[in-house]
Q: What sequence folds into this?
């Protein structure tokens, strides 16, 4: 060991600083869901510049992306996330249940810790050859649907609940008719990708399917940047308001000494700069002034929220847990 390295370790020992913590303070890891890659790349760069200006510290923000449920399991299995920015509250609740963060995590930031919102829409091919306008059109003969797997993808769960909520509000709806619609819907899905970005690639790049049930932000990305002129965006008359939440992982930041930076990073999402970046990447900002400036992108919608299903704990148990509605509609009859 060189004399300089030896002295550095000696200084750490004398000051009582953990060597891993001394390194970790220069880095944050944001474990996020599938379609946020572009968003959090720009957020990380902007926040690092702001943090440098305010504190003089050089900070690197790394990100990890995948299906929201799979990402939550990675954190449970030991992935050292300073913050999580996942697709649904149920995934963060699972971390809290294991003691990785406080159970009242949603109260630590504004808007129940959701800095932006989204919704579920349909992306169809140019000319909309199958004339898909509303949820009943998805089960017409010959329609092939692309959507991810609700067992691994948060976006897929939002999409599942959007369809379910539509079916439940019909005047003559019964439990049997709702389940029959959901069974018919998934009979039109030949393959379930693990995450939203994979489903987008299947529809856009592999050119499979007639319609992609998609996050609004993913559909706008495909429409305006990935395949200009090749697709059309369809807003169903009724959909769901999706609220992707964020949280600090207390057990990690306290061990690594990154709480101040991690908290400031998430607070930055509500700043005017953070809200403009969200809008740029097709997420609906919470700031009403920023949202108003982007009304050309984000039309007014008729939506319902997760409260229509009794909250995420109830929705998860009823629909996505083992033996729930999703398992029942996929089971052979």
A:
């Amino acid at each position: 060991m060189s004399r300089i390295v030896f002295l550095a370790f000696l200084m750490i020992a004398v000051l009582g600083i953990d060597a891993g913590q001394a390194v970790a303070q220069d880095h944050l890891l944001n474990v996020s869901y599938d379609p946020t890659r572009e968003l959090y790349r720009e957020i990380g760069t902007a926040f690092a510049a702001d943090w440098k200006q305010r504190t003089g510290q050089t900070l690197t923000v790394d990100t990890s992306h995948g299906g929201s449920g799979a990402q939550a399991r990675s954190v449970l299995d030991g992935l050292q996330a300073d913050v999580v920015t996942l697709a649904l509250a149920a995934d963060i609740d699972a971390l809290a249940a294991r003691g990785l963060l406080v159970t009242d995590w949603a109260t630590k930031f504004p808007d129940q810790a959701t800095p932006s919102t989204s919704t579920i829409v349909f992306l169809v091919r140019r000319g909309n050859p199958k004339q898909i306008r509303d949820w009943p059109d998805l089960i017409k003969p010959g329609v092939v649907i692309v959507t991810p797997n609700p067992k691994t993808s948060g976006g897929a769960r939002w999409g599942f609940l959007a369809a379910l909520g539509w079916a439940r509000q019909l005047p003559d709806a019964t439990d049997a008719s709702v389940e029959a619609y959901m069974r018919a819907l998934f009979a039109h899905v030949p393959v379930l990708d693990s995450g939203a970005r994979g489903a987008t690639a299947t529809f856009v790049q592999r050119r499979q399917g007639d319609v992609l049930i998609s996050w609004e932000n993913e559909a706008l990305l495909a429409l305006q940047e990935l395949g200009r002129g090749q697709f059309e965006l369809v807003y169903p008359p009724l959909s769901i308001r999706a609220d992707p939440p964020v949280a600090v992982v207390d057990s990690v930041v306290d061990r690594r000494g990154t709480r101040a930076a991690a908290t400031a990073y998430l607070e930055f999402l509500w700043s005017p700069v953070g809200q403009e970046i969200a809008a740029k990447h097709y997420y609906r900002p919470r700031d009403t002034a920023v949202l108003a400036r982007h009304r050309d992108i984000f039309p007014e919608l008729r939506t319902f929220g997760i409260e229509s299903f009794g909250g995420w704990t109830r929705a998860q148990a009823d629909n996505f847990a083992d033996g729930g509605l999703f398992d029942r509609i996929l089971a052979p009859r």
User: Anything to note?
Assistant: The chain has two domains: 3-114+243-270, 117-242+302-330. Confidence is low (pLDDT under 50) at residues 1-24. The chain has 16 helices and twelve strands. The longest helix spans residues 37-55.
